[in-house]
Amino acid sequence: MSAALAGRVALITGGSKGIGRAVATALAQESARLAICARGEEALEAAATELRALGAEVLAQVADVTRSEDIMRFVAATAARFGAIDILVNNAVSSTQGSFGALSDEEWRHHVDVKLLGYVRCAREALPWLEKSTRGRIVNIGGMTARDVSAYRITNGVVNAGVSNFTKHLAEQVGKHGITVNAIHPGYTETPRMAAMIRRRAELEGHSIEEETRLRLAEVPIGRFIQPGDIAGMVLFFCSEAAAAVTGQSIAVDGGSGRAINY
User: How far apart are CA 19 and CA 198, in angstroms?
Assistant: First the structure.
């Protein structure tokens, strides 16, 4: 699919690994100009080097989305480098698995601060530039726990439901500026984060990693885990003209694992 994104400026949080890196790669292949941030400098530079090898113009900056000053610097640097921001992909995340009684206030606060408030901070800071774009796009990466209960992932559920609600509210407010806002709920996606999730759940359940992996795969009707590129493809769709009238939506890319019926 050609998304006709050549020259568009895309800002991606959590862009050094997993889904964020796949999204950056897909946008680079569409000749978009990229600004990526993450907390780890080494992984960030590795991603930037890979993207530049594809011919992309890339700004890579270390930033922590829990720090408003980091986001302000990142957005300002992007605008100074490229003179525009057309696309914001909110993707940064950090969470702890555990039973309800085992999760501390600090663990709850951290997850809310990184993901939900992090998305709010980035959208707020990028919005003046998105309003100047002829077709601004915001894509929020949520998660299937927004719709389905998952053992040991209660903070994910609360935060991802918040991401869906934020997406819908923001879409209504910024539509008049030609900006669309949509969310993607990935299912079990083969990333370093999923590997860590399986290890932790295996530990909590007393399973081997192999058994835990088999159980999770059995939940996916298409018979395979989601690949980061599957999520990136949906991001490209939301950023394309084909989705110009699609806004305020939360779409699952889960291989059919979600059991809820959403109308």
Answer: 17
pLDDT, tens digit, 9 for 90 and up, residues 84-138: 999 999 999 888 889 999 999 999 999 999 999 999 999 999 999 999 998 999 9
What are the DSSP calls for 101-152, one per residue?
GG--HHHHHHHIIIIIHHHHHHHHHHHHHHHHSSS-EEEEE--GGGTS--TT
Q: Where are the alpha helices (DSSP H) in the chain?
A: 18-29, 41-53, 68-82, 105-111, 117-132, 154-174, 192-205, 209-217, 228-239
Q: Which two tokens stand for residue 42?
A: 């080494």
Tokens representing residue 70 in the block: 């980091």
pTM over 0.90: yes
* Residue 9 to residue 83: CA distance in whole angstroms: 9
Max CA separation in the chain (angstroms): 53
